[in-house]
Amino acid sequence: MKIHEYQAKNLLKSYSIPIPKGTIVKNKKDAISIWEDMKGIPLVVKAQIHSGGRGKAGGVKIVNTKEELVDYVSTLIGTVLYTEQTGKDGMPVECVLVEEALKFKKELYLGFTIDRARACITMLVSSEGGVEIEKIASQSPEKVMIEHIEPLLGLRDFQITRALLLTNIDSKYLRKLSSISKSLYRLFIEKDCSLAEINPLVITEDDEIVAVDAKINFDDNALFRHPEILSLRDYTQENHLEVEAAKYNLNYIKLKGNVGCMVNGAGLAMATMDLIKLVGAEPANFLDVGDGATSQMVKEGFKILLLDKDVKVIFINIFGGILRCDTLARGIVEAAYELQVELPIVIRLEGTNVEEGKRILTESGLSLITAKDMGEAALKVAGALGLTS
Ligand code: GDP
Ligand code: MN
Fold first, then answer.
1. Do 319 and 341 have their domain in common?
2. What is the mean pLDDT of residues 154-172?
3. Which end of the chain is more exposed for a tag (fewer CB within 10 A), N or C?
4. Is the distance from the beta carbon of residue 111 to the nearest atom of ligand 1 less than 6 Å?
5. Which of the ligands is closest to the CA of residue 55?
6. Which of the following is catalytic: 107, 128, 197, 334?
């Protein structure tokens, strides 16, 4: 789960990491009142969306007058911001963060994330923080210091010192930076994060270290033990079909292509994606109805697939185990009647009660493209998209 920058900064503050003075603004009136509170010092206005890259996309701006502030706040709120990370749909800006604009001499990068290959938490530090960090990490990886953290030992002092010294940051900042690193690591562990990143972490003109931006993501599987984090969830920033699917306990993942996939089980989902790509097509999404699905759940799931405007062909690939093929067929038929499907549907069914499932589908009068195995089904998907010669 992701949260907004202002929420992440509140968390940093509760771990004693310095943040700029500021407040969340939802309308013109809020903007005027913060201008008066801050007594005319330059302010920075920042769009709150669940995405980085806002600076480059025009979502961060320093303002020097009240008119400029009100003007920019009114322009941003209610619009959709497109950044390198949002994809073509962009993300809605419902509020902005207005803070004192700091003057700084240096932008650093400090982050903790999980290295899945090594199965450990990793600390990343760079003296070249700011909006170009991705470019620096790929073009000059030697500028980003990496410390792998031994799970049983935790982050050790010598690791922090080593990483900081190797970045050529003046050693007079070592104590403050070391304390911030420890606090951020503690936050990462205690809140079950998957990412905790401060970019930039700045050195101000009067030698203070302040977190100017923060991005914190959480491990969804651990949210049950963090109601305080769950309460920060903002559904306006999430894919609405993914949110809808979660209501029915279905696993729906939005992807970039045009084949809508209904499968059961994560393994079959992966194999289905592979096959689709093998025949030259791209999945638009996958919906895993899981094992315990009822006809009602299949029906709701199928509706979600149809609501995805990118979908041009539907591929149903089911191996009936605990989920019986007749249960699945009933759900599909009900949804198809209700929504008057016009898209081609390729279906491959196997497993428990397959005969009954096929009978329900045949007698439904729906025009379905059936396949006897996965390979044939994938080719028929490609055919329906006009990809085969
Ligand atoms: P991001 O682009 O989504 O990562 O948004 P950031 O919050 O990191 O802002 C982008 C850039 O704007 C930062 O890297 C800074 O260079 C600049 N910036 C943000 N806040 C301030 C500020 O208070 N003062 C100054 N001078 N620059 C700022
Ligand atoms: Mn940033």
1. yes
2. 94
3. C
4. no
5. 1
6. 197
C-alpha 212 to ligand 2 mean position (Å): 8
pLDDT at 350 > cutoff 80: yes
pTM of this prediction? 0.86
* Whether residue 375 has pLDDT greater than 90: yes
- Residue 4 CA, distance from chain mean position: 12
Residues 70 and 115 both lie in one domain = no
The preferred substitution site among 213, 215, 216, 237 for testing ligand 1, maximizing ligand atoms within 8 Å of CB, is 213
Q: Residues 63, 154: one domain?
A: no
Q: Separation of 257 CA from ligand 2 center, angstroms? A: 29
Q: How many CA atoms lie within 13 A of 220 on its CB side?
A: 4
Q: Is 52 in the pocket of ligand 1 (CB under 6 A)?
A: yes
- Percent over 70 (pLDDT), the chain: 99
Residues 6+ positions from 56 with CB-CB distance below 8 Å: 83, 84, 131
Run of H or E residues at 269: helix 266-278
The gap from C-alpha 383 to its chain's centroid, in whole angstroms, comes to 33
Whole-number pLDDT of residue 249: 86
| CATH classification of the domain holding 71 | 3.30.1490.20
109 with 96, same domain: the answer is no
Q: Which domain holds residue 379?
A: 240-384
Domain membership of residue 293 (yes or no) is: yes
Q: How far is the CA of 117 from the centre of ligand 2 (A)?
A: 26
Domain count, the chain: 3
Q: Report the pLDDT value the prediction gives residue 389, as an integer from 0 to 100.
A: 53
| H helix and E strand count, the chain | 13, 18
The verdict on the CB of residue 44 being under 6 Å from ligand 1 is yes
Same domain, 194 and 246: no
Q: What count of other Cβ atoms lies within 10 Å of the Cβ of residue 64?
A: 12
| CB-based contact 348:377 (threshold 8 Å) | yes
Does the C-beta of 19 come closer than 6 Å to ligand 1?
no
One domain, residues 119 and 184: yes
Do 208 and 287 belong together in one domain?
no
Asked if residue 12 is part of any domain, the answer here is no
